[in-house]
Amino acid sequence: xFADLLRRLTAAAxxxxxxxxxxxxxxxxxxxxxxxDGDYAEVERERIDRILATRYGLSPFEAPKLRxxxxxxxxxxxxxxxxxxxxxxxxxxxxxxxxxxxxxEVVLADGVREHEEDALLRLVAPMLGINDRDSALLRQKVEAxxx
Length: 147
Fold this sequence. Notes:
About 75% of the residues lie in helices and about 0% in strands. The protein is mostly helical.
């Protein structure tokens, strides 16, 4: 099911993704960050659903469906470096900055900044073309909303 999308993402010169594939790829990245610490908690799944519903205007039934598809894609996706670089090549900058903010929301969803999630986000942000400073500002923005 996801073979075509993965093939397009990992092509030598990936073309921009259609909106439905872009959102699936970005959702899979949210799932990957949530799974990074080995504890894919319900609070993280709920946060991913809220992010997807808000970002893409999905209903309370559509967001969990997209997350389930993203979980399957994430399980089949190549290593994080190739997967993230492929997303960078196929997704506009504005969407990538927004996904870093969403990734911080997932990392901070359970109230604990786990080392594994933090390390993965520090790896992913530059690969998406987001520098450490901007990533930190996005994290602070998320933390301020949670306070």
